[in-house]
Amino acid sequence: MSWQPNPGEIISGLGAAIAFFAMVVTLWFGRRNLNLQIAATELKYFEDFQKWADQLSDALTEAEHLCDLDPKQVAGESFFDRRHRLQITISSMVDRGRWFLPNVVVDDHGADKELGYRGRRHELLDGPVETYNCLLKLDCQDRDNNKSIRAELNKARRKFVGQVQRILDPTSRRIFFDRIRDKAAQMDKRPAR
After folding, report:
1. Nearest Cα to 153, choosing from 51, 49, 66, 69?
2. pTM to 2 decimals?
3. How far apart, in whole angstroms, are the C-alpha atoms of residue 17 and residue 24?
């Protein structure tokens, strides 16, 4: 004796198969959408990080070149005021850098400090902190006393640039975007249907 499905059972079976297929497609698109959201969030993070690094790089470069000025012949904003403005800018930028690169808590180092300052600061912030400390040593009266400090400032700026480059990894990004551009070019060369 063979079992013959009635039309209601056939329709129910087809409905279940369609629902299952729809669920699989929904899960596939959901996972793909999640991956796109993660990529967009990561891209936004690195975009914000680069903006911060750009601003700090400008301040570090200005600090280094401040050593070239003769404090007695500076027009407009005084040498002392420029130095002070740069100290404020760099100090603020270091604190904002902690939002991207929080301190690493090791043992009880800095346990008595405020939350954002506990642990050890990320090595990327060492160059800007060194720059801040160098600015404190600048002589606001005699340019000749600032020549050796310029070398320290150059070293601190270069340390910062190297660390930023390591994080942003421009070589890998360029390779990634080259692949995207190449794929787009290949698609443009396809014959129209």
Report:
1. 66
2. 0.72
3. 11
